[in-house]
TrEMBL record, chains A, B:
Source organism: Caenorhabditis angaria
EC number: 4.1.1.33
Record keyword ATP-binding present: yes
Protein name (record): Diphosphomevalonate decarboxylase
InterPro entries (UniProt xref): GHMP_kinase_C_sf, Mev_decarb, Mev_diP_decarb, MVD-like_N, Mvd1_C, Ribosomal_Su5_D2-typ_SF, Ribsml_uS5_D2-typ_fold_subgr
Protein family membership: Belongs to the diphosphomevalonate decarboxylase family.
Keywords noted in UniProt: ATP-binding, Cholesterol biosynthesis, Cholesterol metabolism, Lipid biosynthesis, Lipid metabolism, Lyase, Nucleotide-binding, Steroid biosynthesis, Steroid metabolism, Sterol biosynthesis, Sterol metabolism
Secretion signal, residue range per the UniProt entry: none
Annotated Gene Ontology cellular component terms: cytosol
Length: 358, 358
């Protein structure tokens, strides 16, 4: 039997930064996110007779010795299965003994875009395995998380909160759906060149946890309030407040990176131009667009569908985007003025869709 | 009678950001600084019969209507004088009635360098007035402060702490000398181009005070500890610890700017290159150099004299500096490798000298 799923990536609106357990990937704080529908992993998993598990991504075989997390994921999934078999059948045999996972995945992420493709990838593997061997939701969520922390947020549609939990074994650490989809939400992802050599997020989180006093304060006093504000603004469809918290939290996350020793920089000149463009677009009235940046220079601009054309017209007067990408969203916009920054790619997407079985 | 003084600029090692009173320029937190000997204002003040106060800087008359702080400074100085005359002479007349201040100042700051020339300028005016009309130290310190907040830190040599105080009238807000000069300390100031339109520090401080949760935490819980650490490391001549706190505090100040809504950016690409150079220079052993950035892209690198040549050799392999500036410090260094950033000017200075009467 082969199970095929499609799982979207997700973008955090209140960010996760820092682990309380690196092995189990337990975060220091809760985070909250939306899926980005257009960027996804399509993944098939089957259990087959072969010497070892195999993973192929976009037609290329993954070396499981240098990418250890796949094996961790497979082992945990099989452990859950054995546990269940043991409970149900009072210790009798497991009918999958000797079978190995064969994973075939394709993604539509732009190559080296610095977008969180691993989150969608591990969420897709976990969901396919969940269906294939019959894990419950909590088990599948854990399998996704130990593959790539934020993958657990891609297991649901709508607004999703990843609870950090406090238990050492991580049994109270999982993602839950907080709210249904907000149908008019869209995002525009501006893919910029990475100008700096990136500090990987695992290394960056470790460094911030060890050296940033502001991170400790953020985790203890600010994150939960912000998540509550996001959930409330989302519930009320109050875009102005929603945007305010999203931008503040993106900025605070990058502030924490700067408060780290040695300091970490993810925002490039182009990122800052995009920030200026959004701040300018929001002047004089209610906020109509919100930027958010993960551990890289690329911007995700969140806005309601009714404001997409206006924003694009305004943004492309200062940031040049590939004309083919632009024409997919609008054919009436011409990029004429002197650009102050250039994006390699522009992606347009709805937000909040759940993963699906194909 | 004319009084002439020379007053150096100062650079904060633990930064001041945010005012508790904008009119009296009372800061939200203490700060601690060293003077930069080579950059200074040379200022003569006399009391003369003329229609109004006059200020000339580098041969150019200042418009006192659009630069209101000069008048504030003069009025406060004269108020102190009248108060003293009143106390001493039991209400008899003031022999300076009708006389006005004539200020003539020259500075050696590179034009538009974004260095804190106003701090040295107002400190110089205040010190000259102090001698001219006989103010006490606390009075002169206040006069300097209401001209330009950090000017009060240029009124002494050595390590100087500006106490924020808590009183509404600011009578407990003044700078004090914490320690004598550390004779081997030097600084190298890399003047970079300002790539961004700068948010002025008055506006920036206001915005951060109103919107940054991290600033509140910094002020309440971190600043005093850092000042104590700086004072202790300075006392012990423990450069490694001294450098650690200086760099952390510079980074935290810029993190606060980023945690502001809308976010404020003072560090340019070139600033970040300099940060990388210093972090790299400090790898594998005790720290031998420390960067600090005020509200602009220019770097002040603090180090001991014995490490100046090594650092310069290392830094100029990646950051090009004007050859004339370099030759003043070393004639044995050639800038050969591919530069990753370019400085417009390099200034070399001792640190910690007091202002002097000429």
């Amino acid at each position: 039997m082969s199970v095929t799923v499609r799982v979207p990536m997700n973008i955090a609106l209140v960010k996760y930064w820092g682990k309380r357990d690196e092995k189990l990937i337990l975060p220091l704080n809760d985070s909250i996110s939306l899926t980005v529908d257009e960027l996804c992993a399509e993944t098939s998993v089957e259990l087959v007779k072969q010497d070892d598990h195999t993973v192929s991504i976009n037609g290329k075989e993954v070396d499981l010795e240098s990418n250890k997390r796949y094996r961790t994921v497979f082992n945990e999934a099989l452990r859950f299965q054995r546990k269940r078999a043991h409970e149900k059948e009072n210790g009798t045999s497991n009918n999958n003994i000797g079978l190995k996972f064969k994973v075939t995945s394709t993604t539509n992420f732009p190559v080296a875009a610095g977008l969180a493709s691993s989150a969608a990838g591990f969420a897709a593997i976990s969901m396919a395995i969940q269906i294939l061997i019959g894990l419950d939701e909590t088990q599948a969520n854990k399998v996704a998380r130990i593959g790539s922390g934020s993958a657990c947020r891609s297991m649901f549609g709508g607004l999703v909160q990843w609870k950090s939990g406090i238990k050492d074994d991580g049994t109270d650490c999982f993602a839950i759906k907080v709210n249904e989809g907000w149908n008019t939400l869209r995002c525009l992802i501006f893919v910029f060149d990475g100008e700096e050599k990136k500090v990987g997020s695992t290394e960056g989180m470790r460094r911030s946890s060890q050296t940033s006093d502001l991170l400790k304060y953020r985790i203890e006093h600010l994150v939960d309030k912000r998540i509550a504000k996001i959930a409330e603004a989302y519930e009320k469809r109050d875009f102005d407040e929603f945007a305010k918290v999203i931008m503040s939290d993106s900025n605070q996350f990058h502030a924490i990176c700067l408060d780290t020793s040695p300091p970490i920089r993810y925002l490039s000149d182009a990122s800052w131009k995009l920030i200026e463009v959004v701040e300018k677009f929001n002047e004089n009235g209610k906020r109509k667009a919100a930027y958010t940046f993960d551990a890289g220079p690329n911007a995700c601009v969140i806005l309601e569908d009714q404001n997409v054309q206006d924003f694009l017209r305004f943004a492309t007067s200062q940031i040049v985007v590939p004309i083919d990408d632009l024409n997919k969203i609008s054919t009436s916009i011409t990029q004429t003025e002197q650009p102050i920054a250039v994006a390699k790619k522009l992606i347009y997407s709805s937000m909040g869709s759940p993963p699906t079985q194909l």
